Amino acid sequence: MEFVSGWTPPETAAARDGGEERAEGTLDGAGREERAVCVQCGEPTEYPASTRGATLCPVCEWQEAERVACSC
Known about the structure:
Blueprint: H1 13-16, E1 35-37, E2 44-48, H2 58-68
Antiparallel strand pairs: 1-2
């Protein structure tokens, strides 16, 4: 019997960009590493594209902090 979890891998940047494959740690035109995009709004973040995990732009980070802050 085969176990099937139903998990599917997330969409990759290459699939979103029309099939262009980009290596991790690629540089932009100014010689800096490309920025990761916010997982909520799609704006550029302060983090490099090679950052693992869910990255948020400064605005969404602030809003998330307000949502989870203790109100007591």
